[in-house]
Amino acid sequence: xxxxxxxxxxxxxxxxxxxxxxxxxxxxxxxxxxxxxxxxxxxxxxxxxxxxxxxxxxxxxxxxxxxxxxxxxxxxxxxxxxxxxxxxxxxxxxxxxxxxxxxxxxxxxxxxxxxxxxxxxxxxxxxxxxxxxxxxxxxxxxxxxxxxxxxxxxxxxxxxxxxxxxxxxxxxxxxxxxxxxxxxxxxxxxxxxxxxxxxxxxxxxxxxxxxxxxxxxxxxxxxxxxxxxxxxxxxxxxxxxxxxxxxxxxxxxxxxxxxx
Length: 260
Fold this sequence. Notes:
By secondary structure, this protein is mostly helical. It folds into 3 domains: 1-66, no CATH class; 76-153; 163-254, no CATH class. Helices cover 55% and strands 5% of the residues. The chain has helices at residues 6-37, 40-50, 55-66, 68-72, 81-112, 122-153, 180-183, 208-218, 239-242; strands at residues 167-168, 184-185, 199-201, 229-230, 251-254. The longest helix is centred in the first third of the chain and has 32 residues, at 6-37.
């Protein structure tokens, strides 16, 4: 028998691969037809027994057959059952993470970049799935950190102590002396261990929006590192000398461990 060239063997193997892929899709189409024509009991029961397939395996074949991406790109896809099934998982991941509109675009880009082709192995597609899993984890961790930060800054409080019961009585034509008892109506509860020239307040907010509204209301920015503020706000040059003034002016001094 004459020795054949490498080119001949390549051609023979590629032809066999194509027959394998064609056979796989023949099975896919046959199972889809059976599902359409048989009732659920016969399809999942008698048929499954006759063809020696578990419900899980039949479900995988159906996933391949019902995949829009696979249906439109059979010619350029891998030729193994496992690789095709992994593609259905990747399609699901992309749809959930990027939404359906971008899913098709991203999958087609993988074909354009030759990351998915007839020679692609199941392990290659598994790597693509893992990449999406890592992105999902990163996004989830960032969201968790943001939610925790927001929760620490603006804790949920009982409805009996709403933020919006703080009313500035000096708004309008009537002028009021700088006495906090007259200036602010509905001020949250507070207490000091000793008589001082400032008030220690723990102010809770129902939402982040309320917290931002409060900043606007007092004309000052608050952060988690804020130790004390004065209200009304004093000119910058007076802050150092007036910080611990001993009279009973309007002053807001949150507790160091309070979140505003």
